[in-house]
Write a structure and sequence with these properties.
With 238 residues, this protein is an alpha/beta fold. It contains nine helices and nine strands. The protein has one domain: P-loop containing nucleotide triphosphate hydrolases (Rossmann fold). The longest helix has 16 residues. The structure holds adenosine-5'-triphosphate. This is Zinc/manganese transport system ATP-binding protein.
């Protein structure tokens, strides 16, 4: 079967997910278009990271299904707070771990693997700190290193949990450019964000509130004054 860009990369149906008996996501159905950028936005605690975790396969739904168009491991870039500071590895080695999906941890990486690692380090302007210990980097540098590791997987499906949160404008610009570049190469990108400007730049937008999908579609059609008022209690984005 030929898969075109307009087919969904992921379809979730009637998802119910929880950590305790009380579900966090309730009967949620949504699609994520292939080769496009989808932004998942919503207030704190609305279930965005939970949805991402289910798509990534790190959380199992109590009910419902997750279908992926292609049988490939997604590259999952967690929030930087989810990664230990004390890992005694260099930035370059951390990024090279992204290639393990291709070789396995005990096989030597090839010259081509290292070329991908160097390209990803360069793309996120990490070459000057590549030899430093990952834990010694600033929060923003570490977030870029985690993204470089995700990009190095060349998975075709990139899942990101708030990649730009807490970063300065230049770091956010670098990350946005890296994601646009991945998309231009055909990668499907799904990012959880609180940044309305980032969501408006996406091709597709899902708005979550209280574990339910409130709206889905083109960002301009979804982030309407009614939705902004109902979900965030604000009247406009300006
Ligand atoms: N590991 C966990 N154990 C128990 N409850 C959890 C766990 N992780 C999240 N939750 C709960 O699930 C709900 C949704 O959390 P989730 O992190 O998915 O929301 P979010 O929209 O990503 O929030 P934020 O914008 O604050 O990151 C919250 O009520 C949260 O307390």
């Amino acid at each position: 079967m030929t898969i075109t860009r307009d087919q969904p990369e992921i379809a979730v149906r009637d998802l119910t997910v929880g950590y305790t008996r009380e579900p966090v996501l309730r009967g949620l159905s949504a699609t994520f278009p292939r080769g496009r950028m989808t932004a998942v936005i919503g207030p704190n605690g609305s279930g965005k990271s939970t949805l991402l975790g289910v798509i990534a396969g790190v959380l199992r739904p109590a009910a419902g299904s997750v279908e992926r168009a292609a049988d490939r491991e997604p590259a999952f870039v967690a929030q930087r707070s989810a990664v230990s500071d004390s890992l005694p590895i260099s930035v370059r080695d951390a990024v090279s771990m992204g290639r393990w999906a291709h070789r396995g941890p005990w096989r030597r990486l090839t010259a081509q693997d290292w070329a991908v690692v160097e390209k990803c380090l360069a793309g996120l302007e990490l070459l000057p700190v590549a030899a430093r210990r990952l834990g010694s980097l600033s929060g923003g540098q570490r977030q870029r290193a985690l993204l470089a590791q995700g990009l190095a997987q060349e998975s075709g499906l990139l899942l990101l949990d708030e990649p730009g949160s807490g970063l300065d404008a230049e770091a956010r610009r670098l990350i946005s450019a890296a994601l646009e570049n991945a998309k231009a190469q055909g990668t499907t990108v799904v990012q959880v964000t609180h940044d309305f400007a980032e969501a408006m730049r996406a091709d597709h937008c899902l708005v979550l509130n209280g574990g339910r999908l409130i709206a889905a579609g083109a960002p301009g059609a979804v982030l309407t004054p009614r939705v902004l008022e109902e979900v965030w209690g604000i009247r406009s984005l300006s």
